[in-house]
Amino acid sequence: MRKNVFLDKFVINKMSTCNLILTLVLLLMSLSSCEKAPIAKETIIQQFKDFAGKPLFIRIFKEEHELEMWVEENNRYQLLKSYKICTWSGSLGPKLKEGDGQSPEGFYSFGQKHLKPDSKYHRAFNIGYPNEFDIANGRTGSFIMVHGDCVSIGCYAMTDPIIEEIYYLVEQALLKGQDKISIHIFPFRMSDEKLKKFKDNKNYPFWQNLKEGYDLFELNKVPPKVLVEDKKYKFK
C-alpha cells in the first residue's frame, strides 16, 4: 500500500498544534496560580517592620484604580504604598441603595470588629457603609468590603497577595491601639481642573462636598475630622 505522506504530515502538524495549545493552557494556569498565591507572612512582616502598628489612613480613587496606604510620622501622614485595585463595580458616583451594584464614595472608618480574616474572599474588612451621611440621605446597603479574590459586587477587590499586605497593616494598627482607621473614597483625584470636567454631572454637588475633605488632607497631611450637618459632610 502506498503511504500517504501528505496525510502523515497533516496528522503530525495537528498533533504538534494540540501539544502547543495544551502547553500554553498549562502555562496560563500556572501563571494564574502564581498571581493568587499569597505572600508568605514572614516576607510581609520584614517588609513593613518599621511601620507595622503605626496609625494608618487609607484613600481610594475609583477612576485611577488606586488604594493609597498612609502612615503617621511626626503627627503628619506620609504615603507608605500605593496599591492597584483589581476591580470595583458600578460607575463613578455614590452608592444609593442595596443591590445597585455600586461601589460607594465618601468618608468611612472601621475598627477591629470590621475585620474578616476568614472571608470567602481571602481576607476582608468592612469599610463601615452606610455611614451617618448615607443614612441621613436615605442611602441603603450593607457588607461593603475591601477584600481579595479580584471579584466585586459593590466592594473594592484586590488580588490575594495585595490584600495580604493591606490586611496585615490594618490589623497591626488596630491591635497596637488605633481605635478606627479612616478610609476616604473618591471618584478620581480631585484637582480643580479634573472636577470642572464634571460640572454637568448629576453628582457634581456631592463631589464638591467630597473635595472639601480631599483638599484639607492635601493641605495638612492629617485626615480631617468628619461630621454630618444638614445632610452634608462638614470638616474640622
Q: List the domain count as a whole number.
A: 2
Instruction: Flag low-confidence runs.
Output: 20-36
**Count of β-strands:** 12
- The tally of helices reads 6
**CATH level-3 fold name of the largest domain:** L,D-transpeptidase catalytic domain-like
Q: What class, by secondary structure content?
A: alpha+beta
Q: What is the level 1 CATH name of the largest domain?
A: Mainly Beta
What does this structure look like?
- With 236 residues, the chain is α+β, with helices and mostly antiparallel strands.
- The protein folds into two domains: 1-36; 41-235, L,D-transpeptidase catalytic domain-like.
- It is built from six helices and twelve strands.
- The chain has helices at residues 5-36, 41-47, 132-136, 160-175, 192-196, 204-220; strands at residues 56-61, 66-73, 76-84, 87-88, 106-110, 115-116, 124-126, 145-147, 156-157, 181-186, 226-229, 232-235.
- A five-stranded mixed sheet has the order 3-2-1-10-5, with helices on both faces. Strands 4-9-8-7-6 form a five-stranded mixed sheet, with helices on one face.
- Strand 6 and strand 7 (124-126) form a beta hairpin.
- Mean pLDDT is 89; it is low at 20-36.
